[in-house]
Amino acid sequence: MDSHLSRTKRSLLVTWVSFGTTFGTARLITHGIHGGWLPWGNISTGGEHVHHYNFGIAALTGVGLVAVRGDERTVGHPAVAAVYGAGCALIADEFALLLDLKDVYWARQGRVSVDVSLGVLSLLGAYLTAAPFWHEIARTTHRHFTREPTEPSER
């Protein structure tokens, strides 16, 4: 994988895979808890349900600290990209709750979270698969608008 992808593309790919895997896993676990077919229940502290977006915020806080520190060995590392993708997925999966400030996960309004998450997956996936095309379009456009006139009639 390293020989064909730049560091940035590798990080984006790992982020995308991590986002999709975490989103699917979170949905599977929440459905299992809600349906009663998993042997455990919700995480609670002091009688209050701890939503999984809190773990996403914690993950993004950790990734932010890595980015601020700027250590060359960790910035752009696949593990950092994986944590970033997972954290984003945990937050996006409860986007409707954060948007309405009501626990609408199982209500019809909760579908917004699924739509946002699938939209992120689709857009990043489309970018990753079509990146060479978009980069060539950008290069060609840049060359077109910045080229010097060569003929006297063009001046």
Give a description of the structure.
- This protein has one domain.
- It is an all-alpha fold and 155 residues long.
- It has helices at residues 7-35, 53-69, 78-92, 95-100, 111-146; strands at 44-45, 48-49.
- The chain starts with 6 loop residues before the first helix and ends in a 9-residue tail after the last helix.
- Helix 1 crosses helix 3 (78-92).
- Strand 1 and strand 2 form a beta hairpin.
- The mean pLDDT is 89.
- It has a two-stranded antiparallel sheet.
- 66% of the residues lie in helices and 3% in strands.
- The longest helix is centred in the C-terminal third of the chain and has 36 residues, at 111-146.
- The chain crosses the membrane at residues 12-30, 50-68, 75-92, 112-134.
Report the order of strands and helices: HEEHHHH
User: What percent of the residues sit in helical stretches (DSSP H or I)?
Assistant: 55-70%
Average pLDDT metric: 89
**Gross morphology:** elongated
- Work out the helix count: 5
How many strands appear in the DSSP assignment? Answer: 2
Number of domains: 1
Structural Rg: 21 Å
User: What is the strand arrangement across the widest sheet?
Assistant: 1-2
Could you give a quick summary of the protein structure above?
By secondary structure, the chain is mainly α. 66% of the residues lie in helices and 3% in strands. It has one domain.
Give descriptors for this structure.
single chain; 155 residues; mainly alpha; two-stranded antiparallel sheet; 5 helices; 2 strands; elongated
